[in-house]
Amino acid sequence: MLTLKELCGGLPLDPLPELQPRDPNVPHAPIRVQELTHEEEKLAVQNALRYFPARFHELLAQEFAIELRTYGHIYMYRFRPDIDMRAYPITDYPAKCTSAAAIMHMIMNNLDPKVAQFPHELVTYGGNGQVFSNWAQFWLTMHYLSEMSETQTLVMYSGHPMGLFPSLTTSPRLVITNGMMIPNYSSREMYDKLFSLGVTMYGQMTAGSYCYIGPQGIVHGTTLTILNAARKNLKTNDLAGKVFVSAGLGGMSGAQAKAAVICGCVGVVAEVSEDALLKRYNQGWVMELVNDLDNLVALLKNARRRKKPLSIGYHGNIVDVWERLVMEYEATGEVLVDLGSDQTSCHNPFQGGYYPVQISYQEAREMMHQDPVNFKVLVQESLCRQVAAINKLSAGGMYFFDYGNAFLLEASRAGADVGRKDGLHGTTFKYPSYVQDIMGDIFSLGFGPFRWVCTSADPEDLKKTDALALSVIEQLSKNSIPCSVKQQYDDNAKWIKEAGEHNMVVGSQARILYSDQEGRISVALAFNKAVSEGYLKGPVVISRDHHDVSGTDSLYRETSNIYDGSAFCADMSVQNVLGDSFRGATWVALHNGGGVGWGEVMNGGFGLVLDGSEEAKTRAENMLAWDVSNGVSRRCWAGNQNAKETIQRTMMTEPRLRVTLPHGIEDDSLLERALNPCF
Questions:
Q1: Strands (E), 335-412
Q2: Which parts of the sequence belong to the Urocanase C-terminal domain (predicted)?
Q3: Distance CA 597, CA 283 (A)
Q4: Could you tell me the pTM of the whole model?
């Protein structure tokens, strides 16, 4: 098995590693549909050979051609490293600067088999969220990071390490772009072709930016979503005996079962992959497994009656679950589900993101590449059946929301009755996006998924950071603040208090906490001080999900509650990355695609290493302030009252901040009178 020093030594060429067959004991990405012409196939192999000296081309050309035609992409399985892939303590990495070692720690966490959905295909989550496009890119990136100094920046083009370039000590050490396209060519069909050619990739959000922290990253967001959905639509804070039904336990969707239990309700989550289901069960995130609908309904009814938190993983198709719940409703008049959603990877519905109910899981995996035309027909028929069942239960009183995975978008394209309307503010449906209806106002208060990683890899450091963060949040909650802000602080204080009990950590020693600008800065400074004083054993990397106040422009999700016509615009996310880069981020990333799919969203993120220095303190203060205020300002200008009040309070505490505020129209008839003199 390799050492970290050997892993950072560059591409292993003398000798070449032995050719490895695909390991049947590891979950693998679905075979991709590859529709390249003969000339394009030649180009794909030629592109892959660029990484290797000519003396290896005769051998590798045939090998790569077979991979391309067999799997739809050249992953370079021969070069998958023989190492225990995980986030090692930062001091173990052979790096010349702390920032580089921290980035290595984050990369290896994203590829940890306990964390990654399809680790051998370099997919972290979402079915196609790549860390790299092939294993040669991984080797070269680790080598460059081991050699990088504090006056160099590593530049990444859609997984490809373009190289180390001279820069300033104040510059980011790493700049990532994933999937950047000339706008008219950002189509799903073009993506499929270019990924097969090896010239672009889909980085999802935190897969390609090296900031994924396992499904914990979405547990907290899902918890807050369920809690606030209940407050708004069920008019209660007590979810005992309430039932939440959804689909997906593979990548980020694996959080749903755990979140339901934390909220105190009964969670029923369907999953077609037995591997994914058992993974969550063995992690303790799913409490009961069932593969029979009669048993599922009996378990659900019993837990509902006893009002005990329970997570049930159903091994089967979610459409069967919804249709069985409809049968119960029609037979008894009782709707057994209170809240419903879906977290299948519908941004990629025809290549493993959604499995149709008409055929088995294994049949679907074969059909999607052997007969893609008819597979698409089955997927769309299945979506229509799913929506029909959801509609009946919703009419009976269930509250259903779209979780930003393009479920309603793809269902509408399939012809399902989702009340699609295309207009000035983009496309809307009869069921709201969870941002639009539940979380949008929370974003406008400046609260979003702030997170940190203890690079010492020591669980004790994580416990200490939990305590530090809790102390900060509880103190902020005592200040004179609006009730809406206090509720968010209190929800998050409860989360941190209980986080250790819920067995959240998968992979790196990480935590997520929804916080606003003041909270993020205060927590970061407390961590930096703790590193400086030796209270923590190593630096802390702070980051966030791209799904945040400022990080993402997506009219189907993060900016679905923008109503000034700018929901189609991506200035906010691009400005955010640019601003973070020169205000102190250790690395930045800008992505096309993420969550709702390629061409449907622009998003970006950052990583910042807190090493205990005064420079790190200054970087955190400046960068985090921009990282939140940018999005709050945009939401304010779009007319959100929460955002306006938030940015006004922020300007009172920071005299250098001057934001253009909108003036609302006082007379609603003014516009009609101006445009229609006969009004």
A1: 339-340, 399-400
A2: 441-648
A3: 28
A4: 0.89
